[in-house]
Structures are given as structure tokens and as C-alpha cells.
Amino acid sequence: AVGRTSLAIAAITDARLALALVKALPPKPETTQALEVLTGKAAKAKKRQAEAKAHQRNLKKGKK
């Protein structure tokens, strides 16, 4: 969107990146629901990442 003053559309598959983008936007009533949904999805992704990291750590130590 070179030369544009506003962002028309953005397709972002990473929930944490999308959350950062929505947080950077000026607060509007339209973005409230998106902010809530993305906050939940980002928390879920962070939890999955932590679980995967713990799993890898357990594999290295020989735990099942």
C-alpha cells in the first residue's frame, strides 16, 4: 500500500503479529471484538509454544 494514508486490508496468519497490528491502530469500537479474539488466540499460541518447548526439553532429558 505504497502512497496510501490508511490500510485497507491485511491478511495476517500469525495471531501475535495480528494482535500487535490491531493494538497499534487507533482505538475504535469496531476493533474491540477483533482485539478480544486476537488476545485469546495469541494466548493460546503462546501456551502451545511453551508446551512444545517443554516437550522438546523432556525429550532431551529422556522423560516421557
**Helical amount:** 55-70%
What structural category arises from helix and sheet content?
A: mainly alpha
Q: Which regions are unreliable across 5 or more consecutive residues at pLDDT < 50?
A: none
Number of domains: 1
Question: What is the averaged pLDDT score?
Answer: 84
Q: So how many helices? A: 2
Biggest sheet features: none
Q: Shape, please?
A: elongated
Count of DSSP strands: 0
Strand content: under 5%
Question: What is the succession of H and E elements?
Answer: HH
N- to C-terminal distance: 49 Å
Work out the radius of gyration: 17 Å
Structure in words:
This protein is an all-alpha fold. The protein has one domain. 67% of the residues lie in helices and 0% in strands. The chain is elongated.
List keywords for this structure.
single chain; 64 residues; mainly alpha; 2 helices; elongated
Helices and strands, with pairings:
Blueprint lengths: L14 H10 L4 H33 L3
Helix pairs in contact: 1-2
Quick summary of this structure?
The protein is mainly alpha-helical. 67% of the residues lie in helices and 0% in strands.
